[in-house]
From TrEMBL:
GO MF annotations, alphabetized: 2-oxoglutarate-dependent dioxygenase activity; metal ion binding
Superkingdom in the source lineage: Bacteria
Protein name (Swiss-Prot/TrEMBL): TauD/TfdA family dioxygenase
An annotated GO cellular component: cytoplasm
InterPro entries: AtsK-like, TauD-like_sf, TauD/TfdA-like
Keywords: Dioxygenase, Iron, Metal-binding, Oxidoreductase
Residues covered by the TauD/TfdA-like domain: 12-270
Alphabetical list of SUPFAM superfamilies matching this protein: Clavaminate synthase-like (SSF51197)
Family, similarity comment: Belongs to the TfdA dioxygenase family.
Organism name: Gluconacetobacter tumulisoli
Length: 281
């Protein structure tokens, strides 16, 4: 049985040894205090993704909660709420358009990804809220990037050290009338707050390792993809009405399980920009 820890006004129930915890005892319809915000941030740094149940909140309340952790980021290419531009619809229909641009399965990779990795400074956090759910299916998987690196074979880690990976979001940006240069990030990143080393690749954006020929790049990326697929590196969340997920985009990658046929599954995501010093980069 998972140990429940009480931290002030709420409880933390770890779901896996290194990633995922369920938060109980909070009502997110009301603003959270500074004390609760700081305690949740510490819990997030430790568990990478926090889950909340039975939170019947609207977009405004979701945005107010996310905004307690930093400035909100308006994504240039997703369907946005007219009232709150930083609220992005994550829909089954939108995925069909997106998947037509970025079909990573042709490489034998699943679309484990992190949000806005195409930016020089990606958004650091995300809050995802269930809106319309199928009766079964539609789970989301998060992967602990630090554990994925720790369990990587030594020879593969040595080959990846010092390499940078590009994430190409150009097609979607162009369709939305935007441009952004292709940037590269270290394949092994250092988390700015925890100091942990993270295996960090976005398989939804045509990743390529710089400085390697195509065959070697694909070989190494397949090893990374295999690490992400290992169940011992994951936590899997089954959505219910009133569910909310809050994760550290720098520490984890995630994967949406699309096993619900033509059901119009809908979630709403709000991204949190990095600190003002870095947010505009």
């Amino acid at each position: 049985m998972n140990a429940i820890t009480r931290l002030g006004s709420f409880t933390i129930t770890p779901l896996q040894p290194t990633i995922g915890a369920e938060i109980g005892g909070l009502d997110l319809r009301a603003p959270i205090t500074d004390e609760v915000r700081d305690a949740l941030k510490q819990a997030l740094l430790r568990h990478k993704v926090l889950f909340f149940r039975d939170q019947i909140i609207d977009t405004h309340q979701q945005a107010a909660f996310a905004n307690r952790f930093g400035p909100l980021y308006t994504h240039p290419s997703t369907h946005r709420s007219p009232a709150i531009p930083s609220a992005h619809a994550i829909s089954a229909e939108e995925f069909k358009t997106y998947a037509a641009d970025y079909d990573t399965r042709r490489q034998g990779w699943d679309a484990y990804h992190t949000d806005t990795s195409w930016r020089l400074v990606p958004t650091w956090g995300a809050v995802l809220r269930a809106v319309n759910l199928p009766e079964q299916g539609g789970d989301t998987i998060w992967v602990d990037g630090a554990r994925a690196l720790e369990t990587l074979p030594d020879d593969a880690r040595a080959r990846l050290e010092g390499l940078h990976v590009t994430h190409d979001f150009g097609s979607s940006l162009k369709r939305a009338g935007h441009e952004y240069p292709i940037v590269a990030h270290p394949a092994i990143r250092t988390h700015r707050e925890t100091g942990q080393k993270i295996l960090w690749v976005n398989f939804s954006l045509r990743p390529t390792l710089i400085g390697l020929d195509i065959a070697e790049s694909r070989e190494l990326l397949t090893i990374v993809s295999d690490q992400y697929r290992r169940p011992e590196n994951q936590v899997r969340f089954s959505w219910r009405p009133g569910s909310l997920a809050f994760w550290d985009n720098r520490a984890a990658v995630h994967y949406a399980v699309r096993n619900y046929g033509d059901f119009p599954r809908l979630l709403e995501r709000i991204l949190i920009a990095d600190e003002p010093l870095y947010a505009d980069l």
